[in-house]
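Quick start: what a row looks like.
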Amino acid sequence: MLYFAYGSNLHHFQMKRRCKDSTFIKKINLKDFRLTFRSKYRAADIEPKKNSIVPGGLFEISKSDEKKLDVYEDFPILYKKYYFLYEGKKVMTYTMTKKTPFRFPTERYLNVIKHGYKDCKLNIKYLEKALVE
């Protein structure tokens, strides 16, 4: 199945450790969404926003990888699954169930995401923008 990563799972080494069958395919943009950080975990989340994009990584994952991600993402309590079409194919990602106010991420978590942006060759300006909104 196809999975869209936009937070710490962009970090290739971490993603491979978490999901051994995962393969990074390419970078893509999720349109009409924006990146933010929230909850007591100060974790990445996406929310609908017209004319905005969230850059991320498209991965191929196995059923067992999906189960591991479900545990890591605390599905269905913290995150729920969100599906969208990309080039006619169904893609799964996670979005938070409760839209709490913005919380600045921890430095450690932010560094993992920055590393992931480098791994996937994403434009860091979208991450920087998410931190000031």
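That is the whole record. The chain is about 30% helix and 40% strand. The mean pLDDT is 97.
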